[in-house]
Specification:
mainly alpha; 20 helices; 0% strand; globular
């Protein structure tokens, strides 16, 4: 299996080297992430729920195909290469969309208050996987503001990369501020999400540096950017490894082997033990990626309700509604867990059933397909606008879409506020920024 992952990584890197603009293409990240979980399932030999039915594979193809097809329609006939490659040196348009330091301060305060509240309410954090954490009303309000850090980070990074400017301390701090609330809860997803947007902006931006580099100072700054991004990537990976080791210990690994030995390939344990220190990290990721397709298959086959029409994904709202209303997302989770227990193996507790599996309890099978098409069209329209509004805010939004599409192999983009809150805050900040630019133009004319 490790060899399969290496080959997969080589193919992806080769493709990006040839087509650098694709790194900022959300469709690339969508297909890459789904290819990863499908390859993992097909080549792992691990079958915790038996054979996946043909209808499930056809449904996955239909939803991904519908998303891509309607995204093309939203792009107004323009191709990805045309949108991402047809730009000239426009330093002013990039720089005038840099956002205010006020948002940086708000984001930092949101993170600080939220993490402090977690500590006060729950004691020591980051000491293992947390299944339930208490938070006060103050912490809940602060949680609404910390996704601003992600928006500030991608905007600041894109401005620095495309203008060959120094990457500011504020940009790095905003990335760290977005990661911390996740890490203190023994989570890792925010690390991955930051890394995806960083890679997308950095590699895409490297194509255009020659348009923006105008002197020797710019060249020096460009080289420093490479070193800073590499250093940041190494530090992020170290934190990722540390959290993974504390979250998934030898006890969990032994339990997985003991309960699933009859469902694993004969050489799996021998191959895994060769990884030494990285064994538990690999095994944890293996469990994640092997469980997603089977979990989705079970939901497609056996989930018959309740359907919450959006409140399962917007659980930030539904979890606070009275149970008697029948709109609490916990009702859906209970039904899904019962399906996993009834139709899985002894140790199969299911997992995140991808974005499709998280939308079916809201919109049923047909409605989920329709939502995929609508989302594809909306992102297509955003890419169409990027062609005409090529600036740091739009580039940052496209990097956010890349991150969101990668995450669809786990849950829907609207399931957790740290994900959809990024889009919400981007929209608010963008509208304020556009209004400010227009007001400045009017004042200059007067």
């Amino acid at each position: 299996m490790i060899g399969i992952y290496i080959i997969f990584a080589i193919i992806l890197m080769s493709y990006i080297i040839i087509n650098k603009h694709e790194i900022i293409n959300d469709t690339f990240w969508l297909l890459a992430s789904w290819s990863l979980i499908i390859i993992t399932y097909l080549f792992s030999g691990y079958r915790p729920t038996g054979k996946i039915q043909a209808d499930t594979w056809l449904y996955i193809i239909a939803c991904l195909g519908g998303f891509i097809f309607f995204e093309k329609i939203g792009m107004g006939g323009k191709k990805n290469a045309e949108i991402f490659n047809n730009h000239k040196d426009d330093r002013q348009n990039i720089s005038e969309h840099e956002i205010s330091i006020v948002y940086f301060i708000i984001g930092i305060l949101g993170t600080s208050i939220y993490v402090f509240d977690l500590y006060i309410q729950n004691g020591a954090l980051a000491t293992g996987f947390k299944t339930s954490l208490e938070v006060s009303i103050i912490g809940a309000i602060a949680n609404l503001f910390y996704p601003i850090n992600y928006v500030y980070y991608v905007n600041g990074l894109s401005s620095s990369i495309f203008l060959s400017k120094k990457i500011t301390i504020k940009t790095f701090i905003s990335a760290i501020a977005y990661i911390i609330p996740c890490v203190v809860q023994s989570g890792r997803e925010n690390i991955i999400l930051i890394m995806i947007s960083t890679v997308a902006i950095f590699i895409y931006g490297s194509r255009y540096k020659k348009n923006f580099i105008i002197n020797e100072i710019d060249k020096i700054r460009s080289r420093k950017q490479v070193l800073l991004v590499i250093f940041g990537g190494i530090m992020a990976l170290l934190v990722f490894m540390y959290v993974s080791q504390t979250r998934y210990s030898d006890n969990e690994a032994k339990s997985f082997f003991n309960y699933n030995s009859e469902y694993l390939p004969s050489r799996f344990m021998e191959e895994t033990n060769k990884l030494g220190t990285f064994k538990n990290v690999y095994l944890n990721m293996f469990q994640y990626y092997c469980a997603q397709i089977p979990s989705l298959d079970l939901i497609i086959r056996y989930y018959k309700g309740p359907f919450l029409f959006g409140l399962f994904n917007f659980n930030m709202i539904s979890r606070r509604l009275p149970i008697s209303w029948g709109l609490n997302y916990a009702d859906c989770f209970l039904e899904i867990n019962n399906i996993y227990l009834e139709h899985g193996t002894r140790f199969f507790v299911g997992g995140w059933a991808t974005a499709l599996g998280s939308m079916i309890p809201d919109f049923n099978i047909l409605g989920t397909f329709v939502i995929c098409c609508i989302l594809g069209f909306c992102i297509g329209r955003s890419k169409y606008k990027l062609f005409y509004e090529w600036n740091s805010m739009r580039i940052g939004l496209q990097a956010i879409f890349c991150m969101e599409m990668y995450y669809t192999v786990q849950i829907g983009p609207l399931f957790q506020f740290p994900l959809w809150g990024i889009i919400l805050w981007w929209f608010i900040i963008y509208k304020v920024r556009i209004s400010t630019i227009r007001l400045n133009i009017i004042n200059e004319q007067n």
